[in-house]
Amino acid sequence: MAWDEWEQLKVDAAQRHTTHMEVNSLQGEGGYATSAGGGTGRLKHKGGPWTEAAVTADDLQTTTSTCRVELRSAHEGVGGGLEGLASLGSLKTVLNSWEERLKAVREECSSLEPKLRQVAVDFREVDAEVGDKAKAVKVPGTRMGQ
């Protein structure tokens, strides 16, 4: 390979490396890629949705437990006036069915609530770890926050 040819290859390679990456063919200010969704271009996560879901699961656990007690007490004494009627058996079947359903919901919420809280904690830890790694990357000619 001749010296001139080598020099031309180096020039061509240098020109290829000076262009900026484009995401979804959108080029932003200064030639840098911008977010296709029109966002700020920064990934953000908050524990909020997971924590809110955990609070909802906890609330449902309490509410279903309360409803189950209220349902049972609302049916107390009903059998005395309905003895001999076919509907009494149906009423008891429905009561038992609803008690079982409410119990299942309560148990599911009891199981879900701590898991949802842990997801919120895990994501915050992962976000902090990823953020620390990203901050450690030094890019020449830029300032933090750009």
What does this structure look like?
The protein has four helices and no strands. The chain has 146 residues and is mostly helical. The longest helix has 51 residues. It is rod-shaped. The mean pLDDT is 75.
Spell the H/E element sequence.
Answer: HHHH
β content, as a range?
under 5%
Class by helix and strand content? mainly alpha
Number of strands: 0
Shape: rod-shaped
Radius of gyration: 32 Å
Helix % is 55-70%
- Characterize the largest beta sheet: strand count, sense, and whether it forms a barrel: none
Any low-confidence stretches, pLDDT <50, length ≥5?
none
User: In DSSP terms, counting alpha (H) and pi (I) runs of 4 or more, how many helices?
Assistant: 4
Instruction: State the end-to-end CA separation.
Output: 43 Å
Query: What value does the average pLDDT take?
Result: 75
Which features would summarize this protein structure in a list?
mainly alpha; 146 residues
Secondary-structure map:
Layout: H1 3-17, H2 48-74, H3 78-82, H4 86-136
Helix pairs in contact: 2-4
